[in-house]
Amino acid sequence: MKKLMLTFSLFLLANSALAGPKCTNEPRENWKPAWEVLEIAMKEVPKLKMLKVTKGKCYEIYGWSTSGEKLEIYYHPVTAEVKKRSNW
Q1: Given a cut of 70, is residue 6 above it in pLDDT?
Q2: Structural domain for 28, as ranges
Q3: Long-range Cβ contact pairs of 77-85 (< 8 A, separation 24 or more)
Q4: pLDDT exceeds 70 at position 82
Q5: CA–CA separation, 24 vs 11, rounded Å?
Q6: How close are the terminal C-alpha atoms of the chain, in Å?
Q7: What tens digit of pLDDT does each residue of 63-72 get?
Q8: Are residues 72 and 18 in contact, defined by beta-carbon separation less than 8 angstroms?
Q9: What is the pLDDT at residue 7?
Q10: Would residue 9 count as lying in a domain?
Q11: Exposed site from 1, 21, 30, 84, fewest CB < 10 Å?
């Protein structure tokens, strides 16, 4: 039983580590339009793969930097500040 609980706990920790940040509870009408966030993002990620809204209510962008680095960036939808940046 202890082994099962340990395995389950490790599974939960691993899944929570993969989750993106929580950005806002603001209603959608208070968010910046996606095109405004894209304009900001394109300065750093000129070659875009995808933009989506996450479960944590962030704009998430996947793409490549000018040096070819694969980037995943989460933007706050109201302020457009970067909440998390990583490679994919």
Answers
A1: no
A2: 21-87
A3: 77/23, 77/24, 77/26, 77/31, 77/32, 77/37, 77/53, 78/24, 78/26, 78/30, 78/31, 78/32, 80/32, 80/36, 80/37, 80/40, 83/21, 83/23, 83/58, 84/20, 84/21, 84/58
A4: yes
A5: 26
A6: 36
A7: 999 999 999 9
A8: no
A9: 45
A10: no
A11: 1
33 within domain boundaries: yes
DSSP-derived secondary structure for the chain: -HHHHHHHHHHHHHHHHHS--------GGGSPPHHHHHHHHHTT-SEEEEEEE-TTS-EEEEEE-TT--EEEEEE-TTT--EEEEEE-
Tokens of 29: 């009408």
Report the CATH number that the domain containing residue 52 is assigned in CATH. Answer: 3.10.450
Q: Taking residues 56-82, report their average pLDDT.
A: 97
Does the residue 58 lie in any domain?
yes
